[in-house]
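Assemble and predict.
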Amino acid sequence: METAIEVRDLVIDRGKRRVLHGLTCEIPAGSVTGLLGPSGSGKTTLMRAMVGVQVVKSGRVTVLGSPAGASSLRHQIGYLTQAPSVYPDLTVRENAHYFASLYKNVTAADADATIKAVGLADAAKQLVSDLSGGQKARASLACAMVSRPRVLILDEPTVGQDPVLRDDLWRQFRELAASGVTVLVSSHVMDEAGRCDRLLLIREGHLIADDTPAAIREATHTTDLEDAFLHLIRERELV
Amino acid sequence: MNPRILASTIRRILSQLRHDRRTIALLLVVPPLLLTLLYYMFKQAHPVFDGVGLIMLGVFPFVIMFLITSIAMLRERTSGTLERLLTTPMGKLDLLFAYGVAFGIAAAVQASIATGIAYWLLDLKTAASPGQVIGIAIANAVLGVALGLFFSAFARTEFQAVQFMPVVVVPQLLLCGLFVDRAHMVGWLQGISRALPMTYSVEALQQSGASYLLWRDLTVVVGCIILALVFAAATLRRRTP
């Protein structure tokens, strides 16, 4: 399968602390990959390196064949930060239209369609500051998806969402992947992991698994991914 | 720079301002109110009002736009919108110029109202024409925006950002010739005064018509704007630790 994102020996320090210790992985194109790990494991730092906003100590990250952060990639990548990064003093619609306007050939109609896709059609004319936490997160998600990028890097897109909406968002990620988009979704909850094509499990800046959910279950002789994660951690600690 | 992105970013910044009615009211009402206060303070000595009032017309846009811009830019940095913008096709200069133009437009409205009231209601008399005063006030506002964009890089919080105002603005205000004529200052103060951009915009306000001094002063102010924007661009890093 074609590789969309390739990470080689990535080392990242934040302050005096080493956050990623020579991480290597590949993310196949047209798939949904889950990036799982507890809070503080380095998920956000890895995603920031992929979109090219993270200072890297050593190693390299290649996205669609170009070094991460290359200007040619800025038309092709969508990034959802963990905290909603939209303008609270604008309406949902104004935010989506603004982010749409930064890309060539993305129209206001596309922006409105994206607002609908994240379930905010009824709140389109509300100021973001007046929305609930989950709605703010979805407004931010709409702004990341609005340009229909080839690579979507989503940092905890489903946190705090209502179960029906969460299901709907996951269905959309799957549809996007089926149409060739590479989707990377981070999460610290394991119940979403089963919906991914592949999983990257990271803990304390080390990659501890990189496989399909089924293969991880099988290798650890568990039926539950939470147990599989535990098994993998204990296994490492014994070595 | 990309004209489409520049235009839509200007529109976005003005929409943010439009949603904030109280800020608009403060922007438009405070300068005329303060000018009226000055007018009554110096009612017995009207020539003093002419001198001070004129300088204030140049000072207001600078101070207010410096403050507004440093907070607005700090918000972009702390809310994550800046990080997101830098992953899009937007260039750094698109963002910086958009702030310059958007707040320049706001300053033009502010300066027109304040200047109009000063001339027609408060009977301000100046060597310069009202049009010239408004033009210099806008240049001053853009200078405030450019310095605000630059200094916001050194503030982590809004508490810190507002404290750059006394650091950046007050020395310029003290040394621009508003309180003591520059010719009467000791030599080293005159030297510092000559190094500060507001000195030149105040001098420009005091010229009548298109003199050599007016163009020289405006050139200095525009040069400082460009310099501050270049430094501001240098503080905008795509990659952060």
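Chain A touches chain B at residues 13-15, 51-56, 69, 71, 74-75, 77, 79, 81, 83-90, 94, 98-99, 101-104, 127, 143-144, 147 (CB under 8 Å).
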